[in-house]
Design goal:
The complex is a heterodimer of chains A (about 220) and B (about 240). Helices cover about 10% and strands about 25% of the residues of chain A. By secondary structure, chain A is of the alpha+beta class. Chain A has one domain. In chain A, strand 5 and strand 6 form a beta hairpin. Helix content of chain B is about 20%, strand content about 25%. Chain B is built from 5 helices and 12 strands. Chain B has about 240 residues and is an alpha+beta fold. The radius of gyration of chain B is 17 Å and the shape is globular. Classes of the chains: A alpha+beta (about 220), B alpha+beta (about 240). At the A-B interface, helix 1 and helix 2 of A face helix 1 and helix 5 of B.
Chain lengths: ~220, ~240
Amino acid sequence: MAIVESKLAAQQACFDCVLPAGESWLHEVKRGQIFRILDLEGNQAVDTLFYNAHNPEERYSAVDTIREQGNLYLTAGTRLLSTEGNVLMTIVADTCGRHDTLGGACAAESNSVRYAIDKKYMHSCRDSFLHALGHCGCGMGKRDLTANVNFFMNVPVTPQGELTFADGISAPGKYVEMRAEMDVYVLISNCPQLNNPCNAYNPTPVRLLIWDETRH
Amino acid sequence: MIKQISKQNIMWEEAIPGGAHWSFLMKRGTALRITDVEGGANLSALFYNREEKLERYNMADTLKAQHTAHLTKGFVCYSDMGRVLASIMEDTCGWHDTICGMSNAVLVERKYGNADYQQHRNAMHRNARDNFLIELGKWGLGKRDIVPNVNFFSKVSVDDAGDLHYETNHSKAGDFVDLRFDMNVLVVMSASQHPLDPNLKYAPKPVLLQAWTCGAAQKDDFCRNFRPENVRGFYNTELLFG
């Protein structure tokens, strides 16, 4: 796990906001811009999808990203690949060291399977995704939801092929930073999951920052 | 105990040639035996609810609900709606991949070179993604409907550092997997080499499909009781069918 720090200063960012848990965020990040997600309180899951802003049919592909780098975990140096084999984003800095892309997003229905039938009435990442897409006027919807990145989540796979949900390795102030290699729509659900020990049953806010290409 | 399928029970039987693609409907309570005829096959597959095709196989939900990163007997294929599309009733090869995706035109040309139809007729080089687009097009579906798929007969394990390891000679001639369909399912398949297959030659292998009627999962069903989550997954599925 390579820890790579950023040289960018928050005061130079052209965008800076705090996204509370349970909220969604859909935003364009232009080619060349640097996008940072900062885990304010530690071990917060940030469920994230990426789309080509000019042709959203081209979108993040977890399986192509994993296969082409020959490794399951996302970290500094990882190129987030699209369904067409193009690079959407390159992770250029990472102080957490490992991010998951197998665990997907929580949803009412998957919560009913994983925890208990009556959990389906709790807020979920997919509800946040659908809420954001329903309002975006971009013609996207459930059909456009696919396997996402879970920034700051630690979901190790054993050599025997078991998927485990391990204690988080993130902490307050850890961040991941990526450079957009094309104009990209970033869709985030700051995970509201209350049934999972990964976030100590306590969903917390994250900070999102963008820097223009010319400022670094 | 591996059940033999008696010839009388078989609804239909078909062989998919190596490199080819096909799609078809399977009703709830029917089963499909997929056999690796020669050994070393890979069958990329996706499943959709035939009545509402927005509901489809979900790799992430399948894996996290069952705490697994591979598929074998006992595991079920979950849709994104918390329902069981299909269950793995039997499996003689022990591991099916679902984390590596499918081959595509660039990958196939890079590994095996170009072989077009004009020169090579039906021995042309095909790739799974284009095969899927063709099959999905028959049902009004397209690129937005291609999600992480199952690769039957292929094994890719992950070491402690996260590095992927493709296992050669994993599936032997005669190995098979039995899928029971727990919903009415559109099945889309491509008999393409696994994208991590180190074979330098374009050599996709055929698979044999045999469909029969097996009935819906009973209360004591092995897959239903394989994990507590699956009990709830079957409950969700049965809400749809009464």
